[in-house]
Amino acid sequence: MAATFATASTVVGLGTSSLSSPSRLSAAKTTRLTSGFVRSSVGVRNPLRQAGASGGKFTCFERDWLRTDLNVIGFGLIGWLAPSSIPAIDGKSLTGLFFESIGTELAHFPTPPALTSQFWLWLITWHFGLFVVLTFGQIGFKGRTDEYF
Length: 149
What we know:
Helices cover 47% and strands 0% of the residues. It is an all-alpha fold and 149 residues long.
């Protein structure tokens, strides 16, 4: 039994001289391996994109679809602060009530606001109005620059 283990056994492909021959090495260098994780050299065609459709405008979403602009943020914030600062709620403005409720809640800081606190109403109302103004501002500003109207 000891003689059986003493004989050298080779595994095909690991210790054989057939892999180290020059003809095999050159063939291995020119062989291309393909994988599902590596892109192929052939470009994939987008069936939704049509060249020259709609007068050269994009028919699908652009990569920079949000197209943020600081003008919209600035004018939108001013456009919301002005009307929300009009004293229309018992002689107080929405912005004033919101900031006043922030101060009231910060007076007992480590404790969070109660669910019945007026803070939540002013917070949601004020921010909802701000986001509506910013959304319409983005639509209007970008619609104007893209000459939709």
